[in-house]
Amino acid sequence: MGMPCQVNSILKLKPDQGYPKRLAIGDRHRVQKPGYRIFPLDVPLCLVDESWQAHADIVIEKLIWQQQTTDLEFRITRIYDAPFAMQ
């Protein structure tokens, strides 16, 4: 029996999932995504809002799978001058 999971190369968050209210370089955040997800660790990824607008680069520093949820801890490493569409 396999484990269902998704492979993600960006972090897309809705406000209710913990999208940061304020973006500041160096800030650390903890969020949860439903299901089991695989993300690259320790490399820059785009942080995308619910409208698929990229606002910053983040680095995921910790990932935990438990109870059909993926817990992430990430740090903001770069904020874009202007958001841009990812989709």
The fraction of residues in strands falls at over 45%
Q: Mind telling me the CATH superfamily name?
A: Hypothetical PUA domain-like, domain 1
At the first level of CATH, the class is Mainly Beta
Give the number of DSSP strands.
7
Strand order of the largest sheet: 2-5-6-7-3
In CATH, the topology is named Ribosomal Protein L25, Chain P
Proportion of helical residues: under 10%
Helices and strands, in order, run as: EEEEEEE
CATH architecture: Beta Barrel
What is the count of distinct domains? 1
Helix run count: 0
Task: Note the overall shape.
Answer: globular
**Low-confidence runs (pLDDT<50, min 5 residues)?**
none
Distance between the termini: 34 Å
- Tell me about the biggest sheet? 5 strands, mixed
User: Structural class, please?
Assistant: mainly beta
> What is the radius of gyration computed over CA atoms, rounded to a whole number of angstroms?
13 Å
Query: What's the average pLDDT?
Result: 95
